[in-house]
Design brief:
Low-confidence stretches: none
Distance between the termini: 24 Å
Shape: flat
Number of helices: 1
Strand content: 5-15%
Largest sheet: 2 strands, antiparallel
Oligomer: single chain
Helix content: 25-40%
């Protein structure tokens, strides 16, 4: 499917992406950088890693939606 993305220069770009489930997650800012202005936040200021606590909900919601379509 075609997806429109911000090109970072005030415009947009269209890219072809798989039609399966895609999630974009923004990691929270680490506590020690809480006072850094939002415009200066960089990747190293954010938490890294897989959010295991929410992963089951993501997979469950995707599976449930797909399963319900198959049983209709």
């Amino acid at each position: 499917m075609d997806a429109t993305f911000d090109d970072g220069r005030g415009g947009t770009e269209v890219h072809r992406i798989p039609g399966s489930y895609v999630e974009f997650a923004e990691r929270r800012v680490l506590d020690q950088y809480a006072d850094v202005p939002a415009s200066e936040i960089r990747r190293e200021h954010r938490r890294e890693g897989f959010e295991a606590a929410s992963a089951d909900k993501i997979f469950e919601s995707t599976y449930t939606a797909q399963a319900s379509r198959r049983t209709r």
